[in-house]
Design a protein that fits this description.
By secondary structure, the chain is an alpha+beta fold. The chain has one domain (14-74): SRF-like (3-Layer(aba) Sandwich), CATH 3.40.1810. It contains two helices and two strands. The chain has helices at residues 14-39, 68-74; strands at residues 44-48, 60-64. Strands 1-2 form a two-stranded antiparallel sheet. The longest helix has 26 residues, at 14-39. GO terms for molecular function: DNA-binding transcription factor activity, RNA polymerase II-specific; protein dimerization activity; RNA polymerase II cis-regulatory region sequence-specific DNA binding. This is MADS-box domain-containing protein. It is found in: Nucleus.
């Protein structure tokens, strides 16, 4: 199956939106890992999920190739 162009808009169904978020989040983390290994660079990735009924502030996900505190201090 070939790639097809998707319409970029908010996904209305909560379950579908969460599943899409999880898949894309893992894809971003994988790309960040590859970038840090292949190019020998320091990478920090911070993702804030949308607020939900169970978590009013939203979930925080992070990836860092080194200590994230040191990388953020550099920034």
């Amino acid at each position: 199956m070939g790639k097809r162009k998707i319409k970029v808009e908010k996904i209305k169904d909560d379950r579908t939106r969460l599943a899409t978020f999880q898949k894309r989040k893992m894809g971003l983390i994988k790309k960040a890992m590859e970038l840090s290994v292949l190019c020998e660079v320091e990478v920090a990735l911070v993702i804030f999920g949308a607020p939900t009924q169970t978590c009013k502030q939203g979930k925080l996900c992070q990836y860092s190739s080194k200590d994230i505190d040191l990388l953020l201090t550099k920034f």
